[in-house]
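The authors assume throughout that readers already know how a fold can be written as discrete tokens. A single example would do more here than another paragraph of explanation. An entry of this sort, consisting of the sequence and the corresponding backbone structure tokens, reads as follows:
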Amino acid sequence: MPRLDEKICLVTGGASGLGRGIAQRFVEEGARVMLTDVNAQAGPGVAEELGTVFRVHDVKEETAWMRVMDEVVAEFGALDVLVNNAGIFSNCPVEDTTLESWQEVLDVNLTGVFLGCKHGVRVMKNNPGGPRGSIINLSSVVGLRGQLGGSAYSASKGGVRLLTKTVALENAARRIRCNSIHPGIIDTPIMAPMFSAAPDPSALRRHIEGTLPVGYMGDPAHDVGNMAVYLASDESDYVTGAEMVVDGGMTIGLPG
């Protein structure tokens, strides 16, 4: 497994789910990590458990990004890796989607990633020793295909996919890489409301897992976290603008 010894990493949306799993793996591989999240209640406890620094951070606010980047540099002296993970989920037919809910999803999932890339590049190009860095944007399999009820969510995640490629192209000569991860069905707290609303949660879980070629839902740390470790590490120096699909075979074909 690649190592991240002493790399300075910022992970947004790190108080739970994918962000927590990614931060856990980064710490295990020797990185120094700052977690950010809007969840000021859960964040400090997660940071203490993992041995990281925590900051409250609303990714859709540019002033918040400027403050957090200043704090990363003040705390650690540089920024090697930025993971734009913070996001919200929505599920509503397009004709029932309000402009307000559409805008909220785009603000967090796409504008938040844009602001992260903008200010991540600003800091990384001024790193001690010269420009360098890895930006990792969390998209989704829904950023590669449509989803019933996913007009706002799929639009935001599709936007992240192409934003990633543009950032990668603009910054390749600076040795600042940008890649996207496209998770499928991962066993995170975002799934909890669906299971709790089901008459038989165990049956629903078996049904979902039965549609996946590998037969189980992914793990945040082992499956998505390990991919993030690779993209953050020096072993992936020649990888930029790529879309890394981590979906247990979800998008390769129809279930039997």
In short: The chain has eight helices and seven strands. The chain has a mean pLDDT of 95.
